[in-house]
Amino acid sequence: MPFYDRRADVIYVSTTEGRAKTANLRRDPRATLEVTSQDGWAWATVEGTATLAGPGTDPHGPEVQALVRPRVLMVMTVENVYGAKIR
């Protein structure tokens, strides 16, 4: 589940090291995240730039505190948001 920090205007997402999406974000940090309502009638898409932290090697490091190893924390700065409610 993504977590949106309103004060910092960033979204936090946990991802796994070694996955294609993690490698792709290391190569090109542009990111898009879509969230839909449970009933599927409303959605929002967020575009931004991702920064990856981890996987952590310092057991007291901030990324280890936020995640279980060997996971990676994606922090996406929100640049654009658009969406719709279809009812």
CATH superfamily: Electron Transport, Fmn-binding Protein, Chain A
**In total, how many beta strands?**
5
Proportion of residues in helical segments? 10-25%
- Rg over CA atoms, rounded to whole Å, is 14 Å
Largest sheet: 5 strands, antiparallel
- Which runs of at least 5 residues are low in confidence (pLDDT < 50)? none
> Which fold name corresponds to the CATH topology?
Pnp Oxidase, Chain A
Number of helices: 2
Could you say how many structural domains there are in total?
1
> Which percent band covers the strand fraction?
over 45%
| Overall morphology | elongated
* Ends apart, CA distance between termini: 25 Å
CATH architecture designation: Roll
Query: Helix- and strand-based class?
Result: mainly beta
